[in-house]
Design goal:
By secondary structure, the protein is of the alpha+beta class. It has 11 helices and 18 strands. The strands form 2 sheets. Strands 1-7-8-9-2-3-15-14-13 form a 9-stranded antiparallel sheet. A 9-stranded antiparallel sheet has the order 4-5-6-12-11-18-17-16-10, with helices on both faces. The longest helix is centred in the C-terminal third of the chain and has 22 residues.
Length: 371
């Protein structure tokens, strides 16, 4: 067996037990991708793992099509769905219901778990079993071609573990030898580019923005005018987008909690978008992380990495849709927040009043500081 694989396994066990590091942290510490970390445990039998380390860890490589695998997740019953990006983690407990697929885009639209899945970026998948004290944590994990985690499904004690075992048997890949090739990710600087295209017309851009009938048209708008998200928000003007402070962001969340305003909170990456809808109850700051810790829903935001926050107004056939958008220093989305809304209905007046009020308070504070 390759000595590098053995070293990874041993380092994983040590860092999990002694340092209590998460998978993402261990992979960064070892200088490998998270997919490579998990893949190093392919081929480990339960007996081998228990003899070699008190920290059982083994992986089974799963085969495509992953859309079919997702369509069978309902049989696991209640699980924890996790989607994250570099600076936000979104965790939701529920059941995978009403699963569908159109082209390379999948939808899970259950009562609690709400997902949009972009399968063209799903390259690797594993069933992972890990000993945690006297318990066994089981999960199914998906990664893109760069070895970055896209989506994870964690079984709970109440989940159907026998169904999990059958699912793993049915989707087990023929090749169960450790070793994968991940593509090298090139540094993308396009998102932080402040130079507008030479043929850009602000007048046409504003006209097209004002003609939007659905917020989903925003992506086509960016593509048509050759802009990234940050360029669009910085360029469109105060009528449609205004910058918020971190203090205003906190005010929005705290006020929504106090007023019991139901929110829609989106966190995603290039392969998955996960949505929580509901009233938030418990906000906790832990070191550099801003957290919502509610039964069945957790949100973790790396507050130091939130570079810009915007109040954005997008026209639609149901009226203006107001969002709070959190961006990193590359202008990439960390999280989006809306008031709860259903298609064909205007947005909640209470949500609009809340977020516009936070902006007004921010403006008044800036004026008082200037005096």
């Amino acid at each position: 067996m390759c000595s590098q694989v053995i070293d990874i396994r041993q380092s994983f066990a040590s860092l999990r037990l002694e340092k209590k590091l998460r998978h993402r942290e261990i992979s960064k510490f070892l200088g490998i991708t998270e997919a490579e970390l998990i893949d190093a445990h392919v081929g480990v039998s339960r007996l081998t793992a228990m003899k070699s380390s008190p920290h059982l860890a083994r992986a089974t490589r799963l085969k495509k099509p992953y859309s079919e695998l997702i369509s069978l997740m309902e049989g696991l019953e209640e699980v924890l769905a996790l989607t994250r990006n570099e600076y936000a983690v979104h965790e939701k407990v529920g059941t995978y219901q009403h699963v569908s697929k159109q082209g390379e885009v999948g939808v899970v639209h259950g009562d609690l778990i709400d997902l949009r899945l972009f399968y063209k970026h799903w390259e690797f998948a594993y069933a992972f079993e890990e000993g945690k004290g006297d318990a066994l944590q089981r999960s199914i994990q998906f990664f893109d071609e760069f070895g970055t985690a896209i989506h994870k499904i964690f079984l709970l004690p109440s989940s159907e573990h026998n169904y999990f075992e059958q699912l793993v048997d049915d989707f087990s890949d023929v090749n169960q030898d450790s070793g994968i090739h991940v593509q090298e990710k090139l540094q993308d600087t396009s998102s932080c580019n402040i130079t507008l295209p030479e043929d850009f017309s602000l007048e046409e851009f504003k006209q097209d923005w004002s003609r939007m009938t659905d917020s989903h048209e925003f992506f086509d708008l960016l593509k048509k005018h050759g802009l990234n998200r940050l360029q669009a928000l910085q360029t469109i003007g105060n009528h449609y987008a205004q910058a918020l402070t971190q203090s205003s962001m906190r005010q929005v969340f705290e006020s929504a909690k106090e007023q019991k305003i139901s929110l829609m909170i989106f966190v995603g990456n290039r392969g998955a978008l996960q949505i929580h809808t509901g009233i938030i109850h418990r906000i906790v700051d832990v070191k550099a992380w801003f957290n919502i810790l509610d039964p069945g829903f957790n949100l973790h935001l790396d507050i130091e990495k939130i570079h810009q926050i915007w109040l954005v107004r997008k026209p639609s056939k149901d009226g203006v849709i107001t969002s709070m958008e959190l961006l990193d220093n590359q202008g990439e989305m960390i999280a989006l927040v809306f008031g709860e809304r259903h298609l064909g209905e205007p947005e909640l007046a209470a949500w609009r009043h809340l977020v516009e009020g936070a902006l007004e308070d921010q403006f008044n504070q800036e004026l008082s500081m200037a005096d």
